[in-house]
Amino acid sequence: MRFDSQGQPLFDSDGLLIVETALAHAASSTTKATSSRPGLIVAAGSYSALHRQYAEVPTTHWPRHIIAPGFIDLHVHYPQTDIIGAPADGLLPWLEQYTFPAETHFSSDSHAQEVAVFFLQELLRNGVTTALVFASSHPESVNALFTQAQQQHLRLITGKVLQDRNSPEGVRDDTEQSLLDTEQLIHRWHQHERLGYAITPRFAPTSSHQQLYGAGELALQYPDTWIQSHVAENLDELRWVKTLYPQARSYLDVYRQAGLLRPRAIYAHCIHLDDADRRLMHDTHTAAAVSPTSNLFLGSGFFDFAAAKHTGMPWALASDVGAGTSFCPLQTMLAAYYVGREGQTKEGLSLAPSTLWWHHTGAGAAALGLHNHIGNLQPGLEADFVVLDPHASPLLSRRSQQANTLQEQLFALIVLGDQRAIAHTHIAPRIALSNAL
């Protein structure tokens, strides 16, 4: 399964995906391969249309499976891996009781390395091939995650959290040093192989004016970096921001004033926005990382998909682990469907299964400015893909056998699937993890 330029699904029941490998490259004179280096997709389509042209290329067969683009997680916290499922009374108590205490441990390189290994394996087990990740406020946490991601040849973007106020000892950083650390980390890791750096204010309440505007200056100085933060997740948070930044028109406007809205800027949640905010995100090419399992878990509210469509606000899906309750994109898509259907506080709608899938793959790549590299299975893109097993459990298999359309099959995977349905995760140019077969 792949997508056209409008995000509509294309599916071949006898699909064939040709990936440039060392062997395929050697045979390119006879197969007319178009890619220039291993790890790129050469061709995708039906077996009947392509197999003669690539008859000499070794083929791996996955009968009764679906090959699809690797998932993109647009917002996830690796230092919160060990607090997933921790109960709390809402966002701010959850931060105080669980998040900040857990993140203090990431000043230890050995701890950060151990969690990074597990975290990346969990992403791969769930078919996530690219992620935009929060580290902690400690440079050690960033170095550990980048080191492990580089070994796995993953596309991964992360950054040191900036939080110089309203934070406890152990995670609170120094304003000047935090910006120096950020710049040093940019020089060390940004655009190194498949890695990228994200300038990362935790959220406006935990950054001073000096730190927030300093982050904006770095974003201007390094325009090909990413920006990530949170906005408008919780009503208590909105009221707090209003007391800290009374001159701003809205919570989102705080980031605009600091120079932190631009292409490659991603803001988690974006629940309690008005249409002026949503149009601002559209106009600045800033995207929302919609995190439905987290929002349901913390009772933060419901993302307004209809309003996002009406205003043209870019969005894609994210797990937001650890407030998010699963690394599995299938579970995230199911929660997004539930949130879309909610019609008491906003306009309810039904998101098509393929729309949900697109917003966890291609739309995420577009939000990151990486749509010419990842997020789809088209010639010239990097061969990050998953192999899905519609028969991974008895109930899923039974329902899949009754599916008459692609939309029905995708929805069966979303509703009934879990980690078992991810049979293989393939990272260009090698298979990173196999759950089955």
How would you explain this protein's 3D organization?
The structure is a single chain. The protein has helices at 22-26, 28-31, 47-50, 91-103, 109-125, 139-152, 175-189, 209-221, 235-244, 251-257, 275-284, 292-298, 305-311, 329-341, 353-358, 362-367, 394-401, 406-416, and strands at residues 2-3, 9-10, 15-19, 41-46, 66-69, 71-77, 128-134, 155-159, 161-162, 195-201, 226-231, 265-269, 287-290, 315-317, 385-388, 422-427, 430-434. The protein is of the alpha/beta class and 437 residues long. Strands 6, 7, 8, 9, 10, 11, 12, 13 and 14 form a 9-stranded parallel beta sheet that branches. Strands 5-15-16-17 form a 4-stranded antiparallel beta sheet, with helices on one face. It has a two-stranded antiparallel sheet with strand order 1-2. Strand 1 (2-3) and strand 2 form a beta hairpin. It is globular. The model is unreliable at 29-35 (pLDDT under 50). Pathway: Purine metabolism; guanine degradation; xanthine from guanine: step 1/1.
Features:
437 residues; alpha/beta; Urease, subunit C, domain 1; four-stranded antiparallel β-sheet; 18 helices; metal-binding; Metal-dep_hydrolase_composite; Metallo-dep_hydrolases; zinc ion binding; Guanine_deaminase
